[in-house]
């Protein structure tokens, strides 16, 4: 109160906003004593009690306020009404009222508590602020426009610039460890997500509008002197519909408008505009530039004065209009081809924002914003999901969020951190089927070194997996809980092993279940055990420790142990989701129970389609296949009629024909007492011999009654499964549309459903409305997912009887690697928005399972980053497999730090803001890549990484010039940034660190860990050593890197693959490369030598060429067998040699006859073979404008993120 009434607020930048935050949380909707959240009804009751107390005091003590005391609450609880009633009172009366209500101490204690102001203005404001009616938080939130406007986008008090030093205090919410209530949790995330999206929108608007180059023409109109891929001038804009408000609302229920643009652009850009999908978000912009035609835009000057931007409004795409003015619906069929370049789009406007704008016109006589728009801007789809996510968060705040009781306190950051661990859960399961987790009994014993393993059988032939394990300490805890006593935890921990045989599924080889082949480590087994149990499981997986394999085994084990439960898989990227699916398909999981939601399934390395419609097509095709089997079974049994017409008729056929015959068979072969049974009895009585004619022969071995009965049971299970599946598919005969079938598949049929976190946020309301249910959640890449995007998947279903049915939450990630991408430094550092929920829970002290053995990189490369973890060793195969035991061909070391000095006096450059490049490092990386290709390295085993986008584009340009069109070299597997490459790996990594003036964002150790851990066999880092060696945060890694020479050492007499052991030096002294020009010159000379050798081989092949008909066969000097396969000679070997020779001959590439060696070499680069060295200089001259063109060259490589 005192601060509000001082002049300090108007002299400090953030004071007013900070004070508003203080007032908000001082009156937050929470019970101050119990900490329970208060509903709107509870807050209304609190407000009424305050007003009633004031009215009682006025009635009893102050007769002058009798009218106030007798008036109903709704008439007197506004600020205006309270000021009217109390403003005329004297200071003494105000003080008496405040003292009566215990708002200020009594007058006799004034000399003791002299901190209280007692002037009229203060006392009046104290009474009014305490008793005035406040708008509900939800009401304010629901009336808020979700699209940012120009008033917010460029308000640096709300959305700070990217240059945040970390000093001072900002008026922003923070995400730390604890939250007051779930409403507070959602509200902070809502505000931060909205502001971060606003910052990204600001960057996109500035980029697009500056490219359009708006100028003021002589007639005061706007002239656009440039063009932009993502923005077009508006030809016409008109609001076509303003629908009436819904009951209880004060804004229109729908506002639609038509936007016309002229797409006189290249075909591919025109297609991008025409393919805008329903619900894509665009922005309507008004610019009124004041600068004349020809004025050059300056990126380093403020944006708004240069372009004269006045208004920004968001809109949502409904669709493009056809020639008849109707919206072209999205669908699988191609869109109609429209004549001309003029296109009109129907858009939805924000109803809340439209009401605000119309109220402004009515009250203040302002300008009609919707008559001024002259630019339509779109954004990249994968970065344009903010509106749907904000709507989802707002919907969550309007519903009663039901989080499982065992998770509620942990999410808010309170209570016992280990309360949700499986060992503390009351429903811990003592006996579980571990399926194919263990390869043998020894593997099981090794996996539990602290347990005594007991087996139920002494027959060694039966001690084979799968195993059922019973943990006796769990039984002891359950018994102690039931008997209300403390469990005896000092007893030896015992596991009882019970092997069991999976029942035969049929007589065919493909009926054998797929099995796991990975020998899991004890820590991985502990992670699998935790994931199979109810509760919260956190698995911290350093690079290469088998996180995905653990996740897949957990999913498989839950699938087999809990056939009635459904599991939801959530990942950060499509690539991680695809990797999970490819490994799930390799295990014993029926593919009809798998479903993949969202885009990205195209990248699956399989011909099977796991999308919604792909699964529907699979079910329909499988139904026809099964009905054909029914028809075959009917024919084999000699039954008449059309039994295989539908799933329903097939069900009747099974009941009356198949099952009846099976029951008669069982009765005829039933063993009576101990009477001997003929060995051929089962075979003679079996009724389905003819159906299994195509099975391996003999069907029955006739060695024992039990063995034949097991075969017969397996055959019937095979038949029974046919009809079971048909019964499941029966609904697809009744549902006729693909949409209805896909919804049924999602809600009823699928048991393992996978999606990205972004898709979950986008489609939450749709999934809830469908009645989507699940029991378990497994999250991969958890440390890369935003806090709110991790929380939303917990609430993709409606609660049952007020309780959540969620039983397991498995989170797998690595908080020592890169966090979620937050572009604004203030939100990233000050608000801590980059902290994932996984990281926060780890910081709270929740028990984790830390995987401690890696199987990706050589031990020497692993040492570069394993210091960041508690314990990270190496699996046996990285020391024994041949590929790890041999050296990298052509290199003296398996990893090396290469110092790169300035080239022509230039180190790092910055053609446009934050667009860092280093031409010397780019050329050096490409030269080493060319060298590797020339000595035989496969291109797909090499990736080039860098820490900045500008360097990525420069390297791509150099590669396109020097390598792309050269059949001897080609393109590397990927050229991208370290951040984009997280979660991927390759055998050989070339890494460019770019900076030569300051360390930059590699100072973040998490980025260093990612950069060092991408390589399996070889890592070569190009950097300015004098800069990075002095960075304290990087010391552990760079100390090891600097133990080796800082100039590149080559073994030029080696070719790929190499046979030299990794710990053995090359036979000849290494070639030491001093700098980039020397390396480029060496590669050029080596290339010429290689081409010359190939050309000589080409000419030699021409000399030995024989014309057709000149070759005669020699007469054999031995007898020749009459049978064509009976000739015992060495023809097979000769043919093998000839095939090898032919394959070598095919690899020869014809060379033009001009003498390549006549070309002159100037410095490091040859003019035609190596093209020009001016690529980098040209990029600088273009001042960053080439980045958009470079984006399109290899953009597909980076599009493995979200929808």
Automatic annotation (TrEMBL):
<dbReference type="InterPro" id="IPR047187">
    <property type="entry name" value="SF1_C_Upf1"/>
</dbReference>
<dbReference type="Pfam" id="PF16399">
    <property type="entry name" value="Aquarius_N_1st"/>
</dbReference>
<keyword id="KW-0508">mRNA splicing</keyword>
<dbReference type="GO" id="GO:0003729">
    <property type="term" value="F:mRNA binding"/>
</dbReference>
<dbReference type="GO" id="GO:0005524">
    <property type="term" value="F:ATP binding"/>
</dbReference>
<keyword id="KW-0694">RNA-binding</keyword>
<feature type="compositionally biased region" description="Basic and acidic residues">
    <location>
        <begin position="1119"/>
        <end position="1128"/>
    </location>
</feature>
<feature type="domain" description="DNA2/NAM7 helicase-like C-terminal">
    <location>
        <begin position="833"/>
        <end position="1023"/>
    </location>
</feature>
<dbReference type="GO" id="GO:0071013">
    <property type="term" value="C:catalytic step 2 spliceosome"/>
</dbReference>
<feature type="domain" description="RNA helicase aquarius beta-barrel">
    <location>
        <begin position="214"/>
        <end position="379"/>
    </location>
</feature>
<dbReference type="GO" id="GO:0003724">
    <property type="term" value="F:RNA helicase activity"/>
</dbReference>
<comment type="similarity">
    <text>Belongs to the CWF11 family.</text>
</comment>
<dbReference type="Pfam" id="PF21143">
    <property type="entry name" value="Aquarius_N_2nd"/>
</dbReference>
<dbReference type="GO" id="GO:0005654">
    <property type="term" value="C:nucleoplasm"/>
</dbReference>
<keyword id="KW-0547">Nucleotide-binding</keyword>
<dbReference type="InterPro" id="IPR048966">
    <property type="entry name" value="Aquarius_b-barrel"/>
</dbReference>
<keyword id="KW-0347">Helicase</keyword>
<dbReference type="Pfam" id="PF13086">
    <property type="entry name" value="AAA_11"/>
</dbReference>
<protein>
    <recommendedName>
        <fullName>RNA helicase aquarius</fullName>
        <ecNumber>3.6.4.13</ecNumber>
    </recommendedName>
</protein>
<dbReference type="GO" id="GO:0016787">
    <property type="term" value="F:hydrolase activity"/>
</dbReference>
<dbReference type="GO" id="GO:0000398">
    <property type="term" value="P:mRNA splicing, via spliceosome"/>
</dbReference>
<keyword id="KW-0007">Acetylation</keyword>
<feature type="compositionally biased region" description="Acidic residues">
    <location>
        <begin position="1194"/>
        <end position="1203"/>
    </location>
</feature>
<dbReference type="InterPro" id="IPR026300">
    <property type="entry name" value="CWF11_fam"/>
</dbReference>
<dbReference type="InterPro" id="IPR041677">
    <property type="entry name" value="DNA2/NAM7_AAA_11"/>
</dbReference>
<keyword id="KW-0067">ATP-binding</keyword>
<comment type="subunit">
    <text>Identified in the spliceosome C complex. Component of the XAB2 complex, a multimeric protein complex composed of XAB2, PRPF19, AQR, ZNF830, ISY1, and PPIE. Identified in a pentameric intron-binding (IB) complex composed of AQR, XAB2, ISY1, ZNF830 and PPIE that is incorporated into the spliceosome as a preassembled complex. The IB complex does not contain PRPF19. Within the spliceosome, interacts with SNRPA1, SF3B1, SF3B3, SF3A1 and SF3A2.</text>
</comment>
<feature type="compositionally biased region" description="Acidic residues">
    <location>
        <begin position="1129"/>
        <end position="1138"/>
    </location>
</feature>
<comment type="function">
    <text>Involved in pre-mRNA splicing as component of the spliceosome. Intron-binding spliceosomal protein required to link pre-mRNA splicing and snoRNP (small nucleolar ribonucleoprotein) biogenesis. Plays a key role in position-dependent assembly of intron-encoded box C/D small snoRNP, splicing being required for snoRNP assembly. May act by helping the folding of the snoRNA sequence. Binds to intron of pre-mRNAs in a sequence-independent manner, contacting the region between snoRNA and the branchpoint of introns (40 nucleotides upstream of the branchpoint) during the late stages of splicing.</text>
</comment>
<feature type="domain" description="DNA2/NAM7 helicase helicase">
    <location>
        <begin position="523"/>
        <end position="824"/>
    </location>
</feature>
<feature type="domain" description="RNA helicase aquarius insertion">
    <location>
        <begin position="427"/>
        <end position="511"/>
    </location>
</feature>
<dbReference type="Pfam" id="PF13087">
    <property type="entry name" value="AAA_12"/>
</dbReference>
<dbReference type="InterPro" id="IPR045055">
    <property type="entry name" value="DNA2/NAM7-like"/>
</dbReference>
<keyword id="KW-0507">mRNA processing</keyword>
<feature type="region of interest" description="Disordered">
    <location>
        <begin position="1108"/>
        <end position="1203"/>
    </location>
</feature>
<feature type="domain" description="RNA helicase aquarius N-terminal">
    <location>
        <begin position="17"/>
        <end position="134"/>
    </location>
</feature>
<keyword id="KW-0539">Nucleus</keyword>
<dbReference type="InterPro" id="IPR041679">
    <property type="entry name" value="DNA2/NAM7-like_C"/>
</dbReference>
<dbReference type="InterPro" id="IPR032174">
    <property type="entry name" value="Aquarius_N"/>
</dbReference>
<keyword id="KW-0378">Hydrolase</keyword>
<keyword id="KW-0747">Spliceosome</keyword>
<dbReference type="InterPro" id="IPR027417">
    <property type="entry name" value="P-loop_NTPase"/>
</dbReference>
């Amino acid at each position: 109160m005192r601060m509000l009434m001082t002049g300090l607020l108007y002299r400090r930048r953030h004071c007013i906003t900070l004070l508003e935050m203080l007032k908000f949380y001082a009156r937050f909707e929470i019970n101050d004593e119990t900490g329970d959240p208060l509903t709107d009804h509870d807050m209304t009751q609190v407000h009424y009690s305050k007003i009633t107390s004031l009215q009682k005091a006025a009635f009893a003590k102050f007769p002058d306020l009798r009218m106030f005391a007798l008036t109903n609450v709704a008439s007197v609880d506004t600020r205006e009404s309270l000021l009217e009633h109390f403003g005329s009172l004297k200071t003494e009366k105000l003080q008496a009222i405040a003292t009566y209500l215990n708002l200020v101490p009594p007058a006799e204690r004034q000399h003791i508590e002299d901190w209280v102001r007692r002037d009229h203005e203060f006392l009046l404001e104290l009474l009014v602020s305490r008793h005035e009616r406040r708008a509900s938080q939800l009401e304010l939130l629901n009336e808020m426009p979700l699209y940012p406007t120009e008033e917010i986008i460029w308000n640096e008090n709300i959305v700070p610039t990217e240059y945040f030093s970390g000093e001072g205090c900002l008026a922003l919410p923070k995400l730390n460890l604890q939250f007051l209530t779930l409403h507070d949790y959602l509200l902070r995330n809502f505000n931060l997500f909205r502001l971060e999206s606003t910052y990204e929108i600001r960057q996109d608007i500035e980029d697009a509008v500056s490219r359009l180059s708006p100028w003021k023409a002589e007639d005061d109109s706007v002239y656009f002197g440039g063009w932009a891929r993502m923005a077009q001038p508006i030809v016409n804009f008109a609001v076509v519909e303003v629908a009436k408000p819904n009951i209880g609302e004060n804004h229109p229920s729908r506002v639609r408008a038509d936007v016309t643009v002229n797409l006189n652009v290249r075909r591919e850009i025109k297609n991008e505009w025409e393919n805008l999908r329903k619900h894509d978000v665009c922005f309507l912009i008004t610019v009124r530039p004041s600068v004349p035609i020809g004025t050059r835009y300056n990126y380093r000057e403020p944006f708004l004065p240069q372009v004269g931007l006045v208004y920004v409004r968001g809109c949502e795409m409904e669709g493009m209009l056809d020639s008849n003015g109707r919206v072209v619906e999205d669908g699988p069929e191609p869109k109609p081809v429209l004549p001309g370049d003029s296109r009109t789009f129907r858009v939805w406007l924000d109803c809340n924002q439209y009401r605000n704008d119309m109220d402004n016109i009515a009250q203040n006589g302002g300008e009609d914003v919707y008559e001024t728009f002259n630019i339509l801007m779109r954004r990249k789809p994968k970065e344009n999901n903010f509106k749907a996510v904000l709507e989802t968060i707002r919907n969550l705040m309007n519903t009663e969020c039901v989080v499982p009781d065992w998770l509620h306190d942990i999410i808010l950051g309170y209570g016992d951190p280990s309360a949700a661990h499986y060992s503390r859960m009351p429903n811990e399961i003592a006996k579980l089927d571990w399926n194919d987790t263990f390869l043998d009994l020894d593997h099981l014993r090794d996996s539990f070194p602290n347990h005594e393993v007991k087996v139920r059988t002494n027959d060694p032939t039966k001690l084979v997996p799968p195993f059922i394990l019973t943990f006796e300490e769990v039984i002891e805890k359950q018994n102690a809980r039931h008997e209300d006593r403390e469990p005896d935890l000092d007893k030896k921990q015992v596991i009882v092993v019970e092997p069991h045989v999976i029942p035969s599924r049929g007589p065919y080889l493909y009926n054998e279940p797929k099995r796991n082949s990975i020998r899991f480590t004890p820590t991985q087994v502990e992670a699998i055990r935790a994931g199979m149990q109810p509760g919260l499981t956190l698995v911290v997986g350093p690079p290469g420790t088998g996180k995905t394999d653990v996740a897949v085994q957990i999913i498989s084990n839950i699938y087999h142990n809990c056939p009635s439960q459904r599991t939801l898989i959530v990942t950060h990227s499509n690539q991680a989701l695809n990797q999970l699916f490819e490994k799930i398909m390799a295990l014993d999981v029926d593919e009809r129970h798998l479903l993949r939601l969202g885009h990205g399934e195209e990248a699956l390395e399989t011909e099977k389609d796991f999308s919604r419609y792909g699964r529907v097509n699979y079910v329909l095709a499988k139904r026809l296949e099964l009905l054909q089997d029914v028809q075959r079974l009917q024919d084999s049994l000699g039954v008449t009629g059309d039994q295989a017409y539908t799933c329903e008729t097939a069900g009747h056929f099974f009941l009356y024909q198949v099952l009846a015959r099976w029951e008669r068979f069982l009765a005829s072969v039933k063993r009576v007492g101990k009477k001997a049974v003929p060995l051929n009895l089962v075979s003679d009585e079996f009724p389905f011999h003819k159906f299994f004619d195509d099975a391996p022969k003999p069907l029955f071995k006739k060695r024992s009654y039990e063995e034949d009965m097991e075969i017969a049971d397996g055959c019937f299970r095979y038949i029974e499964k046919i009809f079971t599946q048909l019964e499941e598919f029966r609904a697809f005969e009744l549902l006729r549309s693909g949409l209805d079938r896909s919804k049924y598949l999602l809600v009823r049929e699928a048991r393992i459903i996978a999606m990205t976190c972004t898709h979950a946020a986008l489609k939450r309301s749709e999934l809830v409305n469908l009645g989507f249910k699940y029991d378990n959640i497994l999250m991969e890449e958890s440390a890369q997912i935003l806090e709110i995007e991790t929380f939303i998947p917990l609430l993709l279903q409606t609660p049952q009887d007020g309780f959540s049915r969620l039983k397991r939450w498995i989170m797998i990630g690595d908080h020592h690697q890169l966090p979620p991408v937050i572009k604004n430094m203030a939100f990233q550092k000050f608000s801590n928005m980059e902290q994932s929920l996984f990281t926060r829970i780890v910081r709270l002290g929740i028990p984790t399972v830390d995987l401690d053995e890696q199987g990706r990189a050589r031990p020497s490369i692993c040492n570069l980053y394993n210091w960041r973890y508690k314990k990270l060793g190496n699996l046996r195969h990285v020391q024994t497999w041949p590929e790890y035991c041999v050296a990298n061909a052509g290199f003296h070391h398996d990893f090396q730090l290469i110092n790169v000095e300035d080239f022509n006096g230039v180190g790092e450059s910055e053609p446009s803001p934050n667009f860092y490049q280093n031409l010397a490092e780019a050329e050096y990386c490409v030269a080493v890549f060319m060298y590797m290709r020339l000595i035989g390295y496969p291109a797909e085993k090499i990736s080039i990484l860098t820490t900045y986008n500008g360097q990525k584009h420069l390297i791509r340009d150099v590669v396109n010039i020097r390598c792309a069109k050269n059949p001897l070299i080609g393109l590397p597997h990927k050229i991208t940034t370290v951040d984009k490459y997280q979660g991927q790996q390759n055998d050989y990594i070339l890494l460019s660190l770019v900076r030569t003036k300051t360390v930059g964002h590699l100072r973040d150790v998490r980025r260093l860990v990612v950069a060092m851990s991408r390589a399996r066999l070889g890592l070569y880092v190009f950097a300015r050593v004098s800069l990075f060696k002095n960075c304290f945060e990087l010391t552990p890694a760079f100390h090891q890197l600097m133990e080796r020479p800082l100039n590149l050492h080559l073994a030029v007499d080696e070719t790929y693959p190499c046979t030299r052991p990794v710990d053995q030096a090359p036979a000849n002294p290494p070639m030491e490369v001093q700098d980039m020009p020397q390396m480029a010159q060496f590669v050029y000379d080596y290339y010429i030598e290689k081409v010359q050798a190939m050309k000589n081989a080409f000419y030699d092949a021409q000399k030995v060429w024989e014309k057709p008909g000149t070759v005669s066969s020699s007469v054999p000097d031995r007898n020749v067998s009459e049978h064509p396969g009976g000739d015992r000679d060495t023809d097979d070997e000769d043919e093998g040699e000839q095939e090898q020779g032919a394959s070598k001959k095919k690899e020869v590439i014809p060379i033009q006859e001009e003498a390549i060696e006549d070309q002159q070499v100037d410095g490091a680069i040859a003019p035609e073979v190596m093209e020009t060295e001016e690529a980098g200089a040209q990029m600088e001259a273009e001042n960053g404008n080439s980045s958009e063109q470079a984006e399109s060259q290899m953009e597909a490589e980076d599009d493995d993120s979200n929808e």
